[in-house]
Amino acid sequence: MTLSRRSVLQGGLALAVTGAMPARAEFAPRPVINDASRLNPTSVARHIALKAAPTDDVVGRIRQEIAAAAAEGRPFAIGTARHSMGGQSIPRDGVAITLTGGHIELDKAAMTYRVGAGMRWFEVIRALDPQGFSPAVMQSNSDFGVGSTFCVNSHGWPTRYGPFGATVRSVKIVMADGQLVECSRSKNAELFALAMGGYGLFGAIVEAELDMVPNVSLEPTYVRMDPSRFADAFLKAVETDPAVKMAYGRLSVAREALFDEALLITYRPAATQPSPLPAVVDHGALTGFSRNVYRLQTGHEWAKDFRWFMEASISPTIAGAATRNTLMVEPVVNLASGDRTRTDILHEYFVPPDRFKDFVDLCRAVIPKAKAEFLNVTLRYVDADATAVLAYAPQKRIAAVMSFSQEISPEGEVDMMTMTEALIEGIKGLGGAFYLPYRLHARRDQVRSIYPRSEEFVAAKRKLDPQLVFRNTMWDAYFA
């Protein structure tokens, strides 16, 4: 048999490869989870999707995963939608649970309902609406999980309320040792105050008992004004007119004329209440043309002016009555951008009403210098929170919820960090606060100054969870 040089070489190479290499490569990449910013991809050891159902032992499964994480020396975190932007539900190299679904039970006599922590607010509204009820307070969009809302102690725009925790009667928490603890203002009150706005660092919330109110049809009133008048007008409307059931404000955001005008929108019960009320409509208001105008604001100052014209001049002439549930059920996805080179970033600042004019001046001095596009600011009333250890509104505040569009790049990150640090330093000087669930761009000294009970918070954490089983990237950045 004659062998060519090429066939010998090919055969030898094949023999060498098969002898030196395994039959197949074995490689399983770890799961990676992220949050709404799309800027925090984080490798975790395990990611478990857990959908609660009446026949499931959800508490048992959560206990099992907490115990496994503790035995392995790994952090544990639980979340639902992961809309927080600073990794508050992400445990680096740890065990992550995404909890969805759950149960809901109404107590009409007590005007409360019990709900599984994995339920999203649109599911809650769909359950309450046919019964004629509405959540007393929830986040302003309906995509978020109930347990997560308690963990960040979010607020809404119904009046007159403090943060969400003000409407929470009790919660059930799985602790680091696996114990299921019920806590409230009268039972395990210290744990209740720590877990409310405690970012999941004290345990896994599995159930909550919450206040509900009647669903009603509401009509809006629009008042356009100079920003210097807004704080007084807002407080007067909310605090002296019992007919006002929901309220918010807006400010113009065009770069060259930042905050030149303000708009106050209040909702009162309609003179005629349909019986029965129309079923909740959850397609949201920001669809079609309105949504396109909102997205066009990135890179187009004319679109910011046009959107303000639509909201301040056109909307008052066409807006009609809507039920409380329909007003609250709008999903955040209605605002989503299709541009994968950019991401929407939220800021939130809590302003003492008597310093609101100074806050306007602060924003005018800082925001126009940034490259990030300022898309929107919504102003809300937040009553004093006397319960949460990490309270952002120890006295009544005007909350300024801001949305920016940021370029996804190192330059975009530096630009956002620079602006954020300056705004936080400014709000600190005004005696206000910034909201912790967003990007981790604050300095530690700013966190401790603005949240003066943070040392108490950390000490309690180390006492109740000595192995630090419940950890996330916010803990690592601000408290570790």
What does this entry look like structurally?
It is a single chain. With 480 residues, the protein is α+β, with helices and mostly antiparallel strands. It has two domains: 32-214 and 467-479, 2-Layer Sandwich (Uridine Diphospho-n-acetylenolpyruvylglucosamine Reductase, domain 3); 217-444, 2-Layer Sandwich (Alpha-Beta Plaits), CATH 3.30.70. Helices cover 32% and strands 24% of the residues. The strands form four sheets. It has an eight-stranded antiparallel beta sheet, with helices on both faces. Strands 6, 7, 8, 9, 10 and 11 form a six-stranded antiparallel beta sheet that branches. Helix 7 runs antiparallel to helix 8 and helix 10 packs antiparallel against helix 11 (410-429). The longest helix has 20 residues, at 410-429. It is globular. It starts with a helix and ends with a helix. The model is unreliable at 12-18 (pLDDT under 50).
